[in-house]
Design brief:
302 residues; alpha/beta; 2 domains; five-stranded parallel sheet; 13 helices
Length: 302
Amino acid sequence: MTDNREVNEFKLTIPLIQGEDAEEELDAGATRDLEQMLKTNSQAVSILLADDNIEMLNFLEKKLIASGYKVVKANDGKVALQLLESEYVDIVVSDVMMPEIDGIELLQHIKSDVNYSHIPVILLTAKTRMEDKLSGLDSGADAYIEKPFAIEYLIANITMLLRNRERIRERLERMPYTKATGKGLNKVDEEFLSKINDIIQANFNNPEFSMEDVIANMGMSRTSFYRKIKGMLDLNPNEYIKIERLKRAAQFFEEGHTSVSEVCYMVGFSSPGYFTKCFQKQFGVSPKEYISKHTKKSGTAD
């Protein structure tokens, strides 16, 4: 006789990693997932070249590739805008005079679109009149280079603009109350970060709050959001959110809060041990040392 009774099978999964190790592993895992989204065969800086002069386009491509850059080419501004939708680009180098969409129009499109406004734009032109230069700079160009020019000069400008992004990241990482502002961030970018910060601050005491919640509130795709933060600050979104939480923790300590565990939960960490480890890495001292230092300053001031 065959037994046709249904059998219910239950599976119980017990995590092997708990407490602060679990939080650290989740954080690292989310970072790995984000990095994988934009992983390419080359880790080189990616430059979008736009020029309707094919000889100039090929010449610049050859020289920049020889200098270690990855190059994406467009023979006019319209193609350049299409490529921005599918390619991860660190910087745009564009001629001014092009058919369909010229360099100034391309620049205006980039700087007014929140998805791309963080990308530095270098304009190349044969126009030497001062009003032409001012027109380009007023439109948001990060650099304006007259033709003919030495390739070394172009590379020096590229290096300088990318270094500005690194400086913003370094200030964010090293200084407790630094905001992500300064050269390299235009009004669109600053408003974008201000909105993110408002969202993060409204959810400081929610340990379940994550980068996915920020993305949902910003109305962007996951890939676009990651590219934006990475392009502006040379950080991934999880790192940026963590830094903002830690900066707020430092402010709480400055305001007189002395319980490390209490502040840990107030800024959204679920493990005091992991919070202490992150705080030490961010500020170079433990939370208790930070509190002690602030207490001494307050005593001196009184």
